[in-house]
Each structure stands twice: as C-alpha cells, then as structure tokens.
Amino acid sequence: MSDCIFCKIANGEIPSDFLYEDENVVAFKDLNPQAPVHVLVVPKAHHDNIIDGVPADTLASMAAAAKAAAEQTGVDKTGFRSIMNTGADAGQTVMHLHMHVLGGVKLGEGLLPKEA
Ligand code: 5GP
Ligand code: ZN
Q1: 99: three-class secondary structure by DSSP
Q2: pTM
Q3: What distance in Å separates the CA atoms of residue 103 and residue 109, rounded to the nearest whole number?
Q4: pLDDT tens sequence across 56-115
Q5: Would you kindly state where each structural domain of the chain is located, as residue ranges?
Q6: What's phi and psi for 113, nearest 5 deg?
Q7: Which residues have a catalytic role annotated?
Q8: Which residues surround ligand 2, an ion (CB under 5 A)?
C-alpha cells in the first residue's frame, strides 16, 4: 500500500534497524516506546489487521520474530507482553498489522487500564 508507513519500513523504503527479519516479517523498535523494551513485529505484506485473514506462515513468522526480539533485548528471561490492537476500540492507530512486544518493567497482572 503506497502511503502506508509500515509498508515503507518493512520493505526497506525507509531505512531502519531490524532486530529480526525473515521472508515474511521484520521487527524494529517503536518510535514512541511505552516500556523500556518496545518492539514492533510487522509483516512485509499489507494486512490492515488480524481481521483481514493473515496467512499461517506470516503468523508463524510473527511468533518467531517476537521470540527473537525478546531474546535480543533480554526480556525472554524476565517476561514480556505481546499485543495486537485491532480497530477503533482497541486504539489501533497504524492500519497495518503489527504486534507490540513490551517488557523491561513489571507490567502487572491486569490486561486493561483501570478506566476500561
Ligand atoms: P497501534 O496504536 O496502531 O497499536 O500502534 C502503532 C505504534 O506504531 C505506536 O506505538 C507508534 O509509536 C508506532 N509508530 C508509528 N509510526 C512509527 C514509525 O514511523 N516508526 C516506528 N518505529 N514506530 C512508529
Ligand atoms: Zn502497509
């Protein structure tokens, strides 16, 4: 998709440092980190989000990328949270499928902010 920022990053049009790359996905640091470790796992093919119907090999690559990013940042040992926001109520701001990998701090047991 020509004006999609994650398409441009994932396909090398915008030069970025990747923590992981395979034929289906890349992983790179979030521009506006919300935890000491905040990595985004992004497919190279454009899908708006998980509702689009994502191929199984892409989902497998996303899991491999999350594992690799966790190992490189050390949160494989301490724990981390993986989140995929989908649509308006979830606060998805970039309409290109991505998984957040968040860690490096105690994230607590609740999944949702208190006001939700
Ligand atoms: P969402 O709210 O859609 O789940 O998450 C989008 C994420 O993408 C946000 O955490 C935001 O900081 C990140 N982001 C948006 N634009 C860029 C960018 O150009 N580069 C990087 N590295 N992260 C971005
Ligand atoms: Zn895209």
Answers
A1: strand
A2: 0.97
A3: 13
A4: 999 999 999 999 999 999 999 999 999 999 999 999 999 999 999 999 999 988 888 777
A5: 5-103
A6: -60, 155
A7: 98
A8: 1, 4, 6-7, 46, 96
**Cα diameter, the chain:** 40
The distance from CA 25 to its chain's CA centroid, rounded to whole angstroms, is 10
Q: What is the CA radius of gyration of the chain?
A: 14
H/E element holding 82? strand 80-83
Burial class of residue 115 (count of CB atoms within 10 Å of its CB; 0-12, 13-18, 19+) = exposed
Structure tokens that stand for 84 in this block: 């995929």
The CATH topology of domain 5-103 is HIT family, subunit A (3.30.428)
Question: Which residues are near ligand 1 (CB < 6 Å)?
Answer: 5, 28-32, 40, 85, 91-94
